[in-house]
Amino acid sequence: MTNYLDFEKPLAEIEGKAEELRAMARANSEMNVEAEAGALDRKAADLLRDLYKNLTPWRKCQVARHPDRPHCRDYIETLFTEYTPLAGDRAFGEDDAVMGGLARLGDRPVMVIGHEKGNDTKSRIARNFGMARPEGYRKAVRLMEMADRFGLPVVTLVDTPGAYPGKGAEERGQAEAIARATETCLKIGVPLISVIIGEGGSGGAVAFASANRVAMLDHSVYSVISPEGCASILWKDSEKMREAAEALRLTAQDLIKLGVADRIIDEPLGGAHRDRDTTIAAVGKAISAMLDELAKKDRAALIKDRREKFLKIGSKGLAA
Predict the structure, then answer these.
(1) What is the CB neighbour count within 10 angstroms for residue 165?
(2) Which of 42, 223, 231, 272 is 20 to 30 Å from the Cα of 162, by its Cα?
């Protein structure tokens, strides 16, 4: 069953009619509806192209949050082999919002870390909807430092509305944990590749994405705050999220101009959720290409490359 976004309602009606016709034909073998259903399919394909031809920033936010979009676990299970999960921060406990472990990408050993939102009610609650607590960030620090000791490239998959703002998380040092993870990203001497696969929200995303190379899926978003949060602060009205999304410049296309992102990974027409396998394969190809770019750099060059990248952010897009 396809989950349609608000702006896709006209598409839902057309595709629904085509499916109804085919269901009637399956129930009555004497009916021949293929010509009419085919015409509806073509109309739906044209409408899908029109809807996705020029998505507004707010609509890109909606697509980035689509519940059927492939999540971190899907990428790990499909792209990586010999995945060995590593748990716990060795200080407080395990955080299921953050996945991480040793794996192979092709014949290359790597450390892979990412936010996991879950794919149904039970798993979303268990994963805290991808919002990590301090122990999640401290686990990520532990894994990055381990990768640094053994000379393994680090791949991070970012998909979070932001770090969890609950009382317990604050009591256990949420801000310090995020800062420590960001610092670790910047100081390790191995290649660090980050891909924004859905939402890149606030410091919770930066803590995983202070990388040598940052790639974004075409309809992913990356910003300091959600459009709803921004609208609530600036206009005291969360319903102004469309205006906030425009102002935040959170799309992959805007962030390439600002130097925050380095590469856009194309998504299938209609978003990653309409062709998950193609999307995951494209992400794997991009990760391999970025790792190849960094393979010849030594420790000092990697750290310098990362530092210079972040010092330059925004400089080439300020006049835009």
Answers:
(1) 11
(2) 272
Q: 197 vs 72, 267, 283, 316, 317, CA distance in Å?
A: 8, 10, 9, 24, 23
Q: Counting every residue, how long is the chain?
A: 320
Residue 288: its pLDDT value, please?
97
Task: Say which residues have a Cβ less than 8 Å from residue 241's Cβ, sequence separation at least 6.
Answer: 58, 61, 226, 227, 228, 230, 231
Vertex 163: Cα angle to 157 and 167 (nearest 5): 155
Whole-number Å distance between alpha carbons of 241 and 235: 10
- The contacts found for 147-152 with CB under 8 angstroms, 24 or more apart, are 147/110, 147/111, 147/188, 147/190, 148/188, 148/189, 148/190, 151/190, 152/102, 152/109, 152/110, 152/111, 152/190
Q: How many helices (H) and strands (E) does the chain have?
A: 14, 8
The token pair at 271 is 């978003």
**Run of H or E including 110:** strand 108-115
pLDDT (0 to 100) of residue 56: 95
Q: Specify whether the CB–CB gap between 287 and 210 falls below 8 A.
A: no
Tokens of 268: 């299938």
In b/e form, how buried is each residue of 125-162, taking b as 16+ CB within 10 angstroms? eebbbbbbbbbbbbbbbbbbeebbeeebbbbbbbbbbb
Residues of the chain short of pLDDT 70, as ranges, are 1, 29-31, 316-320
Task: Supply angle C-alpha 204, 75, 279, rounded to 5.
Answer: 105
Contacts of 305 (CB under 8 A, 6+ apart): 212, 294, 297
Return d(Cα 185, Cα 181) in angstroms, integer. Answer: 6
**DSSP classification of residue 264:** E
The residues, any chain, with a CB within 8 Å of residue 175's CB and separated by 6 or more, are 203
Is the domain 61-312 a CATH 3.90.226.10 member? yes
The region that residue 116 occupies, defined by phi over 0 for left and psi between -120 and 50 for alpha, beta otherwise, is beta
